[in-house]
Design brief:
Blueprint lengths: L6 H12 L6 H8 L6 H24 L2
Helix pairs in contact: 1-2, 1-3
């Protein structure tokens, strides 16, 4: 189970993988309040979410 400080980051990672166009400034601002994060950290988090989604989708496609 995620703690309160982990939820904004998890939400951003999920959005990056499934609906990147739905990420708002408020989502990013909420995540930034949970730690001393930089733009570099944000890019890594978004990339992680996107590549994780790609891996899951690739597995689903190749198993059919």
């Amino acid at each position: 189970m995620l703690g309160p400080d982990d939820r904004p980051g998890a939400a951003l990672a999920i959005l990056a993988g499934l609906a990147p166009g739905e990420i708002t400034d408020d989502d990013v601002a909420r995540w930034r309040t949970t730690g001393p994060y930089t733009d570099h950290c944000l890019l890594r988090l978004l990339a992680y979410g996107a590549i994780t989604a790609v891996g899951i989708i690739e597995t689903a496609i190749t198993q059919q």
